[in-house]
Amino acid sequence: MSISRENRIYLRNKHIQTQLLENKSKYSESRELNLLCITYNVNNKKPTENLDKLFDISFLKKKYEKQKLSNKPNLKNEMFQKRKFSVKKTQQNVKEKEEKKFGNENQKEKEKDKGKGKENENENEQEQKKEKEKQNFEPDLIIIGLQEVDTTKQSLIKNDYSKAINWLKKMKNSFPKKYSYLKFSQLAGIVLSVFIKPNLRKCVKNVDLNYHPSGNFGLPNKGGVSVKIEIYDSLLVFVCSHLACNMKKVDRRNSDWKTITENLSFQWETDYPLQNKKKKNQKKTKKIKKKKKIQLYPNKRTNRMKIYDSDLLFWMGDLNYRLGNISRTEVLEMIEKHELNSLIHFDQLKEQMKFGFVFNGFSEAKINFPPTYKFDPGTTKQYDTSEKKRTPAWTDRILWKSTKKDQVVPLIYTCYEDLVKSDHKPVIGFYKIFVEQINTERQYQFRNEIIKELDKTENESLPDASVSTNILNFDSVQYNVPQNQTIILKNEGRGIVQFSFTPQLDKPIICPDWIEISPKSGFLIPSNSIEINFKILINNFTLENFDTDKEEIQLEEILILHLEYSKDHFIVVNLNYKKSCFGMSLNSLVKHKYPVLYNMKEKNQIIEKKNKDNEKKNKKGKEKEGKEKEEKEKEKEEKEKEKEKNEKEKNENENEKIENKVMNNLYIPKELWNLINYLLYNCINYPGIFMQGGIPEENIQIRNILNTQMEFKFKGSPLSVAESLLEFLYSLKVSVIPPRYYKMCLLSVGSRDQCLDFIKTLPKIHQNVLIYIILFLKELLKHQDKNKIKIESLAYIFSNVLCGFPYKNEKILTNRGELIRRKNFLIILLK
Questions:
Q1: What are the contacts of 637-640 at 24+ separation with CB within 8 A?
Q2: Kind and range of the H or E element at 378?
């Protein structure tokens, strides 16, 4: 099948979009934004404390620097080297100071007069620098994530926004400047709110929110809340989550994270921001049409956006990962000594991220603050002293994931201990992020250049592809043994090659059932190649159209590999199939006194001798005429016939011991007798026979023995022999109970006499085989104590193999009533 016009256009647009995304820097400019993220588990408390310092960036920066200095390194050797280096440095500084004392005293007197005029200028410059620093450290976006705002049972059924609004009002009043509210989302006690500077509100569009619960039975006590923002021309997503608690529930936290990431999605485009309503007396102005920006996200075809489709993703909240494999006393000692670099190695979140179980590709700023959980309410540094005495942990975290390197620069990552009502401490992260703004004119110019290059390549060269081989030879193919061969299709042109296998004019099908092609269609980018696999499998379904009486089956099939706007390739598949007793009919099997592939060379030699003798006789008959010569020739022929009879009698006498036991009474195939005879003498007491499958390699070995040897000599698993018997019966070209007798078989289930009368109506060969199998199954059931076989299970297995219902090849399931009646037919005969 050729690729449709719509898909062709889609592939072309996709190539243009990928080029635009890869070369985005050519037509866009990066803008810096300051982002403030706060996560706080309020523990169902009211906002009565002072929150001003949470948003005081200068205060937080000083605190962050102090924590950096107080935090000790992980290794003692590093401390020793730093001390050694500092001693040397102080000695050098003392010498330099002593030398400079005398030289600098004279210079100071000269520079006093000049310095008085410059002092005023320096003061003005310092004031300007301070103002710029304040502007640089003012957050443009404020993201607030709260947990356990409302832990009542009513919140699990219906959201109560009053408590969350009280917290957000309190925080908004603590902002150093005015910020406009952008979006708010809540799931029970989990809250996420976004605030933005008023001058940036015009740059925001396509705002959307979503949430997903992950608690037990889908309750919203745990879960995640998210907000999507498109600012300038970059997509930002913020997620606030509250994961499962308890020290040992690491796997549950991981699964909560996965369910939240999989289920959170947004609309690509939304009607936001809302335009301001026109005033009554406002004059109408002519609208200037502007070029719309080109869509750079090919997934917009699906109408839903996943969180990983964003350019920048921030994830915050009470993640509840604890400190494992360490005692509480050791944790408290390390906190007192400020050995946080060594304590972080016991963090469960860091461990799970290393193994790749959660937060793949996420980053986190370095932790220099003490654990934020669990404190005694009303204290700043006193960890849990209740009966449970939980070990401290960094449960409250802020992480991010970006599409580009250095897109996020962490400036502050700390906690604020002065809020004492909750058992958690708030975590604050201040970041510098880089956002892109597209210049539409440059974008269209660059897009037109890409389209021109595409048009040139398409016009200059049509698709061209080569095939490694056009002929595939499958020699000595065996029954139910697949063979695979591959060809390599290579695109040697400049354009995209679309290929597909098409049927011939006279045939509605691409290829017969015994050939399987993968892939049947596809496309190739320039200078790429693909492997096309051809699988050959001959089984009872594909043998129906074959003449199984022939010793060797040779077939040739021509396949057409069609290329769009280019020449087609013709691939020839040659098949040489070895004859097998599997897949033949009972009538043809009975005619073979020897195995199907038994002494093929000797048979061919005898046939060649006969042909040569016949040629000699014809020549002599033409040259010489007379009764004497004719009599001599007759005598020679009689002698040769006697010799052939003697040879055949010798071979038959060797096999009389094997065949006389059954062939004198029942006219059945020798292959069936070999399998059943082996099972009777070797496997009748084997537990679970016919209930389990055999080894595939041994099944192939058994088929080869049946095809080539008179005596069945096999050393292997009895289960393989049992499976081969079932496969032999199922592979018969005409089943033991032929399809035309199927309905009669179902109707005869009333009594035993009716079943016996039905057997008499079957053809002689089928009748003998069915009786022989029933006698074999009765022998098996006599040894039920050892082989542990039940009559019902045995009847169910063999009823599926013996009965040939008319829709066998169509693979249509029978009714339950038919299955029961078919099984009862054998149960009546076995009892």
A1: 640/613
A2: none
